[in-house]
């Protein structure tokens, strides 16, 4: 049976953050790490080539250079956020689903983020094997509050204003002009995923169909596989999707990045973007592990109500290019506005019969 999200609109054809947790053993435990301002860093890539045109779907044009997170926010990173601001969790940033997440069999027994203690003294921890998986069960509200937290300097920072004025605009808020970080706009997300200038070896028109620098459907591969045209998804065209939520650790297909160096923009988890769709929903792109290959295509977009939290939906952040001067708290790893192109993709493995 094909997997569908409840109440998520059907896709429309149209157009290391890493935790600086103190580890004293092989077990990763955020419960033993006191929240520290600026302890969490994002790893960024630069999306240059300002003023690029859109593709035939009308998406992807961005008149400025910017940065986008190399990976999706991970469970370890989200748990650090919770430990910093959710000792009482009056905003329900933690969901019981984190403790009873679905597995391939659909039995709800896998722990993603555990919560212990009493209200006012809650602590959060992630099983070591899940730490670098993308955070899922994240709604648009949670993504906005995470962005506000990073914008405001982390630690015990405010989650309700800063990048997003949540109390004023609720689930339809867009980032403020002076936001230090934000959820990518749809054009920003799309450009980072699919654009590759023809002058730099990209396809005719400058846009790939898949965010692995390819017009050929990627192959399903396991973490660490060197295949450059690979992703985590649930089946090929004409096949039924499966119900596996065994997401790969972020950036674990080391050669399967976009032209600008992002990873997992196709498959793993759907990612929120700032688009407002149907006047009340927020945009999603990229497909996920339970979905079939077609959801990874540039021509497919989806949307959902901002309060919805799905087992295969997460996010990444974007920001403006840092101004010259002292290094900011969220560290950029690219040295200049000119990206280092990823290795040229090779032909994909044959499609499944």
Can you describe this structure?
Strands 1-14-13-12-15 form a five-stranded mixed β-sheet. The chain has a three-stranded antiparallel β-sheet with strand order 4-5-16, covered by helices on one side. A two-stranded antiparallel ribbon has the order 2-3. By secondary structure, it is α+β, with helices and mostly antiparallel strands. Helix content is 10%, strand content 16%. The protein has one domain (9-320): paralog of FGE (formylglycine-generating enzyme) (Alpha-Beta Complex). The relative contact order is 0.20. It has helices at 75-85, 140-151, 166-169, 186-194; strands at residues 9-13, 18-19, 40-41, 44-47, 66-69, 101-102, 108-110, 114-116, 123-125, 219-220, 230-231, 270-277, 281-285, 300-304, 313-314, 318-320.
Keywords:
353 residues; alpha+beta; paralog of FGE (formylglycine-generating enzyme); five-stranded mixed sheet; 16 strands; globular; disordered N terminus; disordered C terminus
Outline the fold blueprint.
Elements (H helix, E strand, L loop, with lengths): L8 E5 L4 E2 L20 E2 L2 E4 L18 E4 L5 H11 L15 E2 L5 E3 L3 E3 L6 E3 L14 H12 L14 H4 L16 H9 L24 E2 L9 E2 L38 E8 L3 E5 L14 E5 L8 E2 L3 E3 L33
Parallel strand pairs: 10-11, 12-15
Antiparallel strand pairs: 1-14, 2-3, 4-5, 5-16, 6-7, 8-9, 12-13, 13-14
Average pLDDT taken over every residue: 83
Radius of gyration: 19 Å
Low-confidence stretches: 1-7, 9-38, 330-353
Give the CATH superfamily. Answer: paralog of FGE (formylglycine-generating enzyme)
End-to-end gap: 18 Å
Number of domains: 1
Largest sheet: 5 strands, mixed
Query: Helix and strand string, N-terminal first?
Result: EEEEEHEEEEHHHEEEEEEE
Helix content: 10-25%
Secondary structure tally: strands: 16
What is the strand content? 15-25%
CATH class placement: Alpha Beta
Strand order of the largest sheet: 1-14-13-12-15
Number of continuous helical runs = 4
Shape: globular
Under the CATH scheme, the architecture is Alpha-Beta Complex
Structural class: alpha+beta
């Amino acid at each position: 049976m094909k997997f569908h999200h409840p109440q998520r609109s059907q896709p429309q054809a149209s157009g290391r953050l890493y935790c600086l947790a103190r580890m004293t053993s092989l077990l990763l435990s955020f419960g033993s790490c006191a929240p520290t301002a600026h302890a969490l860093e994002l790893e960024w890539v630069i999306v240059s080539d300002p003023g690029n045109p859109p593709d035939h779907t009308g998406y992807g044009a961005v008149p400025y250079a910017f940065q986008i997170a190399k990976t999706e926010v991970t469970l370890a990173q989200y748990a650090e956020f919770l430990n910093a601001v959710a000792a009482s969790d009056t905003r329900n940033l933690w969901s019981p689903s984190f403790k009873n997440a679905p597995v391939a069999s659909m039995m709800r027994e896998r722990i993603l983020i555990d919560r212990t203690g009493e209200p006012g003294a809650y602590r959060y921890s992630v099983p070591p094997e899940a730490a670098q998986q993308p955070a899922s069960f994240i709604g648009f509200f949670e993504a906005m509050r995470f962005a506000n937290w990073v914008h405001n300097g982390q630690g015990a920072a405010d989650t309700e204003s800063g990048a997003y004025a949540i109390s004023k605009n609720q689930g339809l808020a867009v980032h403020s002009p002076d936001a230090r970080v934000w959820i990518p706009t749809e054009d920003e997300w799309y450009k980072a995923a699919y654009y590759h200038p023809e002058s730099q070896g990209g396809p005719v028109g400058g846009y790939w169909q898949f965010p692995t620098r390819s017009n050929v459907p990627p192959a399903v591969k396991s973490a660490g596989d060197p295949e450059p045209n690979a992703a985590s998804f649930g089946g090929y065209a004409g096949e039924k999707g499966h119900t596996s939520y065994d997401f790969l650790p972020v950036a674990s297909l080391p050669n399967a990045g976009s032209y600008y160096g992002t990873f997992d923009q196709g498959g793993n988890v759907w990612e929120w973007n700032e688009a407002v769709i149907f006047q009340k929903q927020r945009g999603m792109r990229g497909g996920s592990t339970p979905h079939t290959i077609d959801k990874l295509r540039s021509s497919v977009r989806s949307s959902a109500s901002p309060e919805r939290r799905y087992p295969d939906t997460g996010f990444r952040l974007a920001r403006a290019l840092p101004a010259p001067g002292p290094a900011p708290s969220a560290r950029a790893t690219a040295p200049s506005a000119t990206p280092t192109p990823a290795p040229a993709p090779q032909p994909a493995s044959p499609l499944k019969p």
